[in-house]
Amino acid sequence: MTLSNSTRASGLVRRRVAVGATAAFLGLAVAVGSGLATAASAAEPTTLTGIILGVGADETQRIVTWYSSADTAQKIQLAPTAEVVNGEFPASAVTFDATGGANIATSGGFNRHATITGLKEHTAYSYRVGAEGTWSPAYSFKTQDFEGDYDFLFFGDPQIGSSGDIAKDQAGWQDTLNVALTANPDIEMLVSGGDHVETANTEAQWSAFLSPDQLRQYPVAATIGNHDVGGKAWEQHHFTPNTDRSAPYYSNGNPASNTSGGDYWYIYKDVLFIDLNSNSYATSQGGGGDEAHTAYVTDVINQHGAEAKWKVLVYHHSIYSPASHAKDGDNKTRRVDFPTTFSKLGVDMVLQGHDHSYSRSYLIKNGEKADPNEQPGADEVVAGPGGVLYVTANSASGSKYYDITKPDSSGTSGAGNGADPLNPGNYWYNSVENQEHVRTYVKVQVRNDKLVVENIRSAANGDQGVGSIVDKVSVHPYHADGQDIQVNVPAPAPGEFGWTIDGYNGLVDLGTAQERDGSYFEANGKINPILVSDSRRSLAPWSISASVGDFQDADKKFSGSYLGWTPSLLDGGAGAQASAAVLSGYDDQGPGLSVSRGLAFAEQGHPRGSAKLGADLDLKFPDSIEKGSYRTTLTITALSS
């Protein structure tokens, strides 16, 4: 049996998605002058600088941006690294045409960008930019599995030049990348929190920021900071996918002005990322203000939220931070304008910069602490409906640090900066605050059923060595009253499979299905136990039943009828009797669990008490199902007289 990857159309097509209900639930310049001058100019080689590898619309794409000293037609050339011999690209190398324009006067030259498409998973690629006779050096990157778990890194405010010593700031930035990527060589993406440079259009600072070769080896998702926004250099250096560059997303409402702006989104495997230009926050400046951003986030999530398991926002101005910007008026405004919308849309995490210190919020719902009892520094948190984690990253270069400031009496919700009742030295909204005047970076692990966030030192602090952890938390998502069930379909030969049950209502992971008899796949697991308690004097009958919808991975799906089960009593009581087994529809051509089926029941007059119900799941489906990671939701219904 062979399972092949699905063929993608030219537009963005996503795979894996959790669906279901919950229970009782991108010219030519003419030079005028003497022939001698023109000939001399023509003899000058084209210089290509500032090359940076950026994220694309999804994991099959990358966008490369660079500067050129000449206004000539240019492109990207790409080939599998294994086919590049002695630096020579093969005849089969593909090319992608670049577009761009003239830079502003202070930057000089021209900017170019092109989008690499059609990448395959588990492949090392080499690329170069320019044209025949004027190619840049070759750089390489690798793709990994286009499904499943992955890690990315988040960096706060390199702000090269803010210390007054560009070389020093560059060295710190380079060292953080060296440390982070030596420790995490298989990281899949680098996300910035903005403020790449101190002065928006100072190219010496941009050259220092772009100097690390890692920025040509790992895709970068760039964010506009307040030190970046005051010129066009940010836009010239970063071309981003799915970007709305209309007036509302520029602070002055004028995209043609000498400023940078725009909001953008992309999906990388299981995460929908939305990046906002938080410099545009007040309509009095001419832009659309915070309302434009919340409308943008709403629209993107409504259109694309179902294409990913997680929703992560990134913008520069931290609204829940611990240092000098915590009480800024503009941040207090954002703190009122943003959180309720983010909660209602099911945002899982917000990554921020600006305050040059580290903080991790409590789970925040509608501008308030979601659970008053969530303890400071908890290393495991479970997000109820609307709970959002906000993370502020410290300086990744060490160019500037801000010291933590103290709470006041302005309140413990909304725009307030009052003290945390459980930890009065912190603001009410922060579970962890940290400033050691030591460079750090944030590592985010994206897993099936949790996000793991770590703040890690990239320089030593006394006994705390390089690579030591400042803070770590696992964030588990809200599952409501249903149970999400996932199975990984392999291609073509299956691997291992397994299941886990946590102490909370976690993902029921059926693992990787195994091929049987070269004709079908099979996966097994158990539902999370269900506890039934009945203390009524009426001793009325009761029953528990459940059903599933289609297993779905974006536009791919297969019927829930292929799932069957064998109910069981884990602990007897309350007169509970296990219902009959239900065969997979693959076995009997029946509806399986695609229709409501009994799990357990008790008859009239049963004794009072409790019972713990379980069921072994049996999933069998044809080998024609495409590779993917499919989910459905088990909808549970309780009935009683």
TrEMBL record:
Keywords associated with the record: Signal
Span of domain Calcineurin-like phosphoesterase: 152-358
Residue ranges of domain Purple acid phosphatase N-terminal in the record: 50-143
Presence of keyword Ribosomal protein: no
SUPFAM superfamilies, per the entry: Metallo-dependent phosphatases, Purple acid phosphatase, N-terminal domain
PANTHER family: ACID PHOSPHATASE RELATED, PURPLE ACID PHOSPHATASE
Protein name: Fibronectin type III domain-containing protein
Annotated organism of origin: Plantactinospora solaniradicis
Lineage of producing organism: Bacteria, Bacillati, Actinomycetota, Actinomycetes, Micromonosporales
